[in-house]
Amino acid sequence: MPDLSGKVAIVTGAGRGIGRAHALALANAGATVVVNDLGAALSGEGHDDTPAQQVVDEIRAAGGRAAANGENVADFAGAGRMVQQAIDEFGRLDILVNNAGIIRDRMLVNMTEGEWDAVIAVHLKGHFAPTQHAAAYWRERAKSGEEVRGRVICTSSPSGVFGNVGQANYGTAKAGIAGFTLIAAQELARYGVTVNCLAPNARTRMTEETFDMSAPSEGWDPLDPENISPVVVALCADEAQGITGQVFHIWGGAVNALRGWSAGELFDSPQGWDPDALLGAMLERFPEGASPPGMIAGMQAAGGQSLQSQ
Q: Could you confirm whether 143 is annotated as catalytic?
């Protein structure tokens, strides 16, 4: 177990599921945790302080230090207050785990503007806002001469890195988070901050809305949310300072550092292309056509197993 004693972490969306597992695992490794959760329904409506407080109570009962936070991470000012709470109550901030999210699944032709905007806001702006405030804090520390070992863990999804039918809003936001990770990792390296991303598979309120994810009757459960958190704890260790800008697909014990957009089929003409010639080259290279394989095929290639849509 990496020793995270003395470090202060924020975990967003930590009242249930994967976020709760992250908060408990970080606390078990010695970190103090600010447990953020709006306590909303899966669709994002409502507010309830109970889930966050229950996780705080669990951490404290085990001898750890924690505080609850009920801010909406998609509210820029609220995200700033959340970061400031960690600094004011515990004196510092070392780790930010962006995990909060909602779903409003719908086929593209039926999706409303509100369904699109709400999901993009919570996932994508909900990553940007806390990270921006945390990054500003770490930059000031670095400029003052302190050695910073900051950590940002983002949360994408197999839907974001492989694509999934019926999740244009969710998958787009999650793909954006993977791209955000790459850019933030490059920008924040100068301040001693690493930024990595998870594309996890686990049984949660959110995934059970879309997939058949029944638990095994006995034995090890590869879809237990607790299987995701060791990756977070490992990446938050001081020894992981050189690992940044990575997107990890996780299924049970299979952790795959994905390649992302890499070089593929090259169509090269030293003098440029005219449309007819380029079309001919494409048809020759792709005699059966070309289309994305989809989420299930992508997950299987990355070490996961099939899920059945409900």
A: no
